[in-house]
Amino acid sequence: MSPLAPTEASALLATLPAWQADLATGKITRTFRFDDFAQAFGFMAEMATVSERMNHHPEWFNVYNRVDVTLTTHDAGGLSPRDIDWARVADQAFARRAA
């Protein structure tokens, strides 16, 4: 798998406005904030299942109601469609909890 070209990455990232991109390092990041630890942990549990199904695992960090996520595709040497797909699913999972 090869990394996304910068123009392609920029176009796809425009559809993920809550994510911050560092195209120089080929990573995207987002902080998710929940009402409490149980919601944050539930989000992580759901996304762990998604990660296994996609065979794509994030770097993430949790403190109480916050989950910080960093995505990159090491095999591709940067940002790939798998990162974009995972980010979209995470945004949907977050939106369900925030509603």
UniProtKB/TrEMBL annotation:
Catalytic activity: (4aS,6R)-4a-hydroxy-L-erythro-5,6,7,8-tetrahydrobiopterin = (6R)-L-erythro-6,7-dihydrobiopterin + H2O
Superkingdom assignment: Bacteria
Record InterPro entries: PCD_sf, Pterin_deHydtase
Pfam families to which the protein is assigned, alphabetical: Pterin_4a
Lineage summary: Bacteria, Pseudomonadati, Pseudomonadota, Betaproteobacteria, Burkholderiales
A GO molecular-function annotation: 4-alpha-hydroxytetrahydrobiopterin dehydratase activity
Species the sequence originates in: Hydrogenophaga atypica
Top-rank EC class of the record's enzyme: lyase
Keyword terms of this UniProt record: Lyase
Family the UniProt entry places it in: Belongs to the pterin-4-alpha-carbinolamine dehydratase family.
E.C. numbers: 4.2.1.96
Protein name as annotated: Putative pterin-4-alpha-carbinolamine dehydratase
